[in-house]
Each structure stands twice: as structure tokens, then as C-alpha cells.
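Take a specimen:
=====
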Amino acid sequence: MKNLTLTTAVLALMATGVFAQDLRIGLQSDPDVLDPDQSRTFVGRIVYASLCDKLFDISPDLQIIPQLATEWTVAEDGMSIAMSLREDVVFHDGTAFNAQAVADNITRSQTLEESLRKSELKSITSVDVTGDYTLTLNLEAPDATIMAQLADRAGMMVSPTAAAAAGAEFGLAPVCSGPFSFGERVAQDKIVLNKFADYWNADAINFDSVTFLPIPDTTVRLANLQSGDIHILERLAPTDLGQVNSDDSLKVVSAVSFGYQGITFNLTNGAGADNPFAKDKRLRRAFSLAIDRAAINQVVFDGAYAAGNQPYPPTSPWYDANFPIEARDIDAAKALMAEAGFPDGLDLTVQVPNTTIPLQLMQVVQSMVAEAGIRIEILSKEFATLLDDQAAGNFQASQIGWSGRVDPDGNIHQFVTASGGLNDSKFASTTIDQILNSARTQADTAARKAQYDAARAILHDEAPLVYLYHDSWITALNAGIEGYTGYPDGMIRLEGVSLKE
């Protein structure tokens, strides 16, 4: 009787064409803590795209669009933003989503000791709950960046009930309001999310679960896609493009990134700052001059990416043309080394994620700067460990990047201002703080551009970060995946996406 019942159920599913589907996504690394206020990894944001809805989102053409907020109005003086919210949203634990929940989320982001979102929401002085689903953000000054911040982690809404109960441990069992709820996590193995039946846009979700699998090795990740063990591979290696394009069972979707990759130097962050590169900007400039960025793009990325020397790619309207990408100049690099007192060279330890492309990149950089007398020791680390060590100051230099933000402030402010949440270099400049804080208040694009250019001139000279390249988000898919759209932020959005077996 049991076998008959099971057979009947299977036949019924076959008749309707409805099967339980688990979408499996291969990630380049394991995310850090799954708390929007505490996290900082790119792959973590990919998980959030399925787990935590935001007040706003972006479109593929980089427009701010509604998500949990439906309408908003910026006051004429720029000192407040009134917004209305969706009325059909509930958190995964049943807690109601409303204006008070938004106010509670902003308070948490601003006051949780471990929060990395404080600088992003610094301009909000208070929140007026004007109705069940209406509120007003009051600002200390006009803030041109705030909408973009609320379209990212700072705008991700978590259950106030769960957040209050868990405190800093919220990331162990996150509760949000996105299309999928948290199921389980096995470190370095998998993160499982389950479809949330009460999601406000549930009809657009076609999977019963989504499993994220950290697979650092690009070759292994691609093999998993080819075998069908995963359905989506985030960040295909450019060197594998030809192989994927020749495989009829696979397809590729790409979008140009507005982020960057580079080297962050530890200047004043703990014991790791006790090294010559931290004390003398001439050594950091020598490091930069010893690098051939165009050659890196060709050797490591088969020309699929773009050489870079700023927080913004050369195609961005925010790029400062007064500082074009420098040609490699070993003689100038050696002269700076000698001027700084190291004519015979010196050693530098650079930590790097233990994944294929970063290691290949650093091996090329290691060879290049060696010609100027800079002897690099490559220290390979699991990505979450690398981030922890970077935040704690346990590094001399770190190969790390940023996935990019729709507003230029998101690519620079939090990395180089004294109170920036991601300023692991601990670079400090009163002038930089004044310039970048002022740029946040400018409504006029030309005025903002002039201030970012002024900041770039200082940062070019000080070189707390040495920018190397700008990548493209190359996503490889099982050919049965339908409805997938690539976004410049590299996120994997699953609304409207389906898998044809």
C-alpha cells in the first residue's frame, strides 16, 4: 500500500510537471557571518539576495528601484526622506514588517557594537514612524549616498524579534524577509535556504530550496557545473570562457563590474603595521610603479577584465582622467626604494585568498615587483580568516577587492575615512575626511566629481590602497537555467529564474 501511494504521488507530480527543485550554486569562497550588519564578503551578499530583502534594489541599468519600500520623497532641502512600505510582508519568524521594524533595523545598524554599517547610515539622526507603513528619515545634512546604502546591506531588513534575542549571534540563524529562509549551515561545506511560503512575491520563486556550496578551486567548480552537481557557477575564470562556450550543456551571462581589486597596505592597524611599507609612502608608490597592469589583464585574465588604478573603472563617469593608468617604470620604482633607504630591496608579506585567481594574480605581482627589489612572501588564507586578520591588523598587506556600489561613495568613503567601517589600513587624513564627507552632501554631480577628484590626488600620493584591475561578473549556468539576468553588482537574483530539467 505504501508503494502504491508513493507511485500515485509521483504520477501526480509528473502529470502537473511540478517537482521539488533544489538549486545549487557554486561560490568562490565561504561567506563570513550571515548578519547584514556585521558581514563584509561579496559571496555573503549573494546569499543575502535570496535571504534578506532590502528597502530598495537596483535595476540592471543601475537605477534605484523599490523593493520593500514602494515610494519615497526627498525633501527640497535634502534634510529628510519620507517613504511608504509594502503592506504584505512578514519576516520568516512571523514578525510583522512595518515602519517600526525599519526604525528598529536602522537603530541596530547604528548602535550594534559589531556593526560595520555605522558609517553608511551616519547621516540619519532619527526615524519618525508616521504610520503603520510610513516613516521619515531625518538627516543631519543632505546625503546623496543614502538611497544607494539602503539598496545594499544597510537596507537589508532583519526580524527585530530575532535580532533582539540573538544580539551579536544573529548570524548563526539569520531571520529576514526574503524569498528563502535560513535552513542550515555547515562551515566550508554548504548553506541551505528553504522557500518561504509567505513571501510577498512567492509566485516569482520557482525553487523549493537553494544550496550554496563554497568551492574555492575554479577547476573543481567548473567540473561540478559540467557534471550537473551545481547549476550556477559564480565568477567563472576568464581562462575557462572558451571551454564553457564550446559546451552545449552550459551557457554564460556576464555584466561589467563597478568594483575593483587591489592591495591594501596596513598603515597603523596594530602590530602588522610595524613594517617599512606602513611608514613610508615612497615604498608603496614604488610597489605600484613596479606593476604592469595591462600585462596582468592579459596574463591572468586573457584580456577579459580592465586594468585599473582607481576605485572606479576607466569607463565610469567618476573616473579621474587626470590620473591615467601609469606605465610600468622599474627605474622610478628603484629610485624611490633607494630614496627611502632600501637600495638593496626589502621583504613584504601579502596575504591572499586561497582561491585560484587571487593566487595566480599574486604570483604575477610577486614576479613583477621583485625586479624593483620588493621580495613578496605570499600568505594564502581562507577568505573569512583573511578578513578577520585584516580587521584585527594581523597583516602587512592584503590582496582584496570590493564588488562595487552604484554610488561612488560606496567605493571609497568607508575604506579611507578615519571612521570608515572597512578602513582596515587605518589610513587617516583630516583632509580626506573633509572632502569625502562633503561629497556626500552634494546634490550637484559636477560638484561631487570635483571633490572625488581632489580626494584621488591625495590617495594617489599616499597609496594606502594600490588598485590593480576591474573585473566582469562572468556567471556560468546549466543550459536549463531560464530567466537569469546578470547585474553589475554580481548578485544572483532568483525571481523569475527556473530550471528546465
The longest helix spans residues 445-462.
